[in-house]
Amino acid sequence: MTSRTPATARVTLGSTFTGAAGGGSGDPDKARDSSGSSGPGGPGGPGGPNGPRGTEGSAGVTVDRHLAAAERQTSLAADVRAGLTSQPRELPPKWFYDATGGLLFDRITRLPEYYPTRREHAVLTAHADEIAAACPAATLVELGSGTSEKTRLLLDALRRLGTLRRFVPFDVDEATLLQAGADILRAYPGVTVRAVVGDFERHLGSLPGAPAGAVGGDRRLVAFLGGTIGNLQPAARAAFLRAVRDQLRDGDALLLGADLVKDTGRLVAAYDDSAGVTAAFNRNVLSVINRELDADFDLRGFAHVAVWNAENSWIEMRLRSVRDQEVTVRALDLVARFEEGEQMRTEISAKFTLDGLRAELAASGLATSRQWTDPDRDFSVTLAVPD
Ligand code: SAH
Ligand code: TRP
């Protein structure tokens, strides 16, 4: 991870925007506001209202970019160099999500073996109105928002309550983010969409301030769904929760979706499906590196591995070299030799208990106010407030 301070570019996309990456987006390199970017040392830069809100309330999706292409490239380069030169080798997961990765993940969510999306959907369907009543927010922020499909259940509940003014989806994957933002804008007339392209481990200090015309305060509900919390290592998880907590004001709340420990067979199957979609998703990180860092990974030379690590309570995704091979990453001037059978870790997906979640939240200054699961207790949704 680099410590360069990114510039923030803000543009407004017309309501006819179709969602192709960067398409019709004006001049993304024209930085208008760098005041809200977090400096070295990670999230938690200057808080409060950030920068000008000149484009607020217009007909289009407003976009804040904290991760311009150049910045993304520098950050990817640093991560890949560190990961390929360490032993055991490891690649950081956020780079799975380019446009192809987004599509593959979307297919994962529909796989018969991948229960988390359906279970979380069930929890939100059953309890969205209680969630909205507990945090009658004007702004719904969603971290790692992806396609924001399940989020509509929350938007609907807040709209029924009459408090919803604005949706702030936040993701590293700009293409998916903008498509989702445009879809939501169309489906929720009168709701402003302010999309943030950024890394939630670094740019939380740049969440937008109060929306124009907010009445009765500007409560924010910050949703972090899909079990993405489990993709962070324990120390990063604690830092992330602390950074979220530091952004929350009185009346704001965090809504956290987290997968629960269960039968190992079901856990492994969810990350090693019979159709091979998860395998393709895992290998996609190699395509991202090939394209963005001019590398020559042969995707057929790496097999998908998913194992349950009981000691750490997480699923580990790896790529196993199926033969001795050499990979050149030209942009890094780096040659990596892989022996047959060498395994490179690409992702963890931690599984929690309800008590464990409460304890982790408490350790980061967040008090659990409500906790829900689906009837089978497969997946949890926790509402927490700053203590
Ligand atoms: N919330 C959706 C998507 C989950 S997939 C759901 O529940 O189905 C994880 C999402 O988080 C992807 O869209 C990915 O692009 C995004 N993401 C992963 N790491 C990120 C990071 N460090 N900063 C911002 N977004 C990130
Ligand atoms: N947040 C999702 C999860 O942990 C991400 C995910 C699903 C994933 N399947 C994957 C990440 C396969 C890497 C590989 O469930």
Describe the overall structure.
The chain has 387 residues and is an alpha/beta fold. The protein has 2 domains: 7-68, no CATH class; 69-387, Rossmann fold (3-Layer(aba) Sandwich). It has helices spanning 69-85, 99-109, 116-134, 151-161, 174-187, 234-247, 264-270, 277-293, 354-363; strands spanning 8-13, 31-33, 61-65, 139-143, 166-171, 192-197, 220-224, 253-259, 302-309, 314-321, 325-329, 334-338, 343-350, 366-373, 379-386. Helix 3 (116-134) packs parallel to helix 4 (151-161). The longest helix has 19 residues, at 116-134. The site of tryptophan has 15 residues, from helix 8 and strand 13. Tryptophan (TRP) binds at residues 96, 108, 116, 226-228, 230-231, 271, 278, 281-282, 317, 347, 349.
Which descriptors would you attach to this protein?
single chain, 387 residues, alpha/beta, Rossmann fold, 2 domains, ten-stranded mixed sheet, three-stranded antiparallel sheet, 15 strands, 31% helix, globular, binds S-adenosyl-L-homocysteine, binds tryptophan
